[in-house]
């Protein structure tokens, strides 16, 4: 199971993770694959976005395997 978590910046500067489902697959040992995903960050009624550093974490079988920080700039 492959999920990803976006750790959103909150108003007080802390981070709040939200996990999104991505894909489910079975791979043989040593097999590789490539996967691509786009995630829109647009105004919605249930979440307010704040400028600053956010984090993306890729979860495989619930375990964090890769992460990256990104800067959200709001005009």
Describe, in plain words, how this protein is organized in 3D:
This protein is mostly beta strands. The chain has one domain (2-72). Helix content is 0%, strand content 48%. It has no helices and 4 strands. The chain has a 4-stranded antiparallel β-sheet, with no helix packed on it. Strand 3 (52-60) and strand 4 (63-72) form a beta hairpin. It is elongated and about 45 Å long.
Features of the shown structure:
single chain, 75 residues, mainly beta, 48% strand
Break the fold down into its secondary structure elements and pairings.
Layout: E1 2-9, E2 15-23, E3 52-60, E4 63-72
Our estimate of the beta-strand percent is over 45%
Our count of domains comes out at 1
Give the biggest sheet.
Answer: 4 strands, antiparallel
The chain-level structural class is mainly beta
Beginning-to-end CA distance, first to last residue: 36 Å
At a glance:
This protein has no helices and 4 strands.
């Amino acid at each position: 199971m492959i999920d990803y978590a976006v750790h959103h910046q909150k108003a007080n500067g802390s981070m709040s993770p939200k996990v999104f489902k991505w894909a489910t697959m079975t791979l043989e040992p040593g097999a590789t694959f490539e996967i691509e995903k786009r995630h829109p960050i647009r105004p919605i009624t249930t979440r307010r976005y704040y400028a600053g550093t956010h984090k993306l974490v890729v979860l495989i079988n619930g375990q964090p395997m890769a992460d990256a920080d990104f800067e959200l700039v709001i005009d």
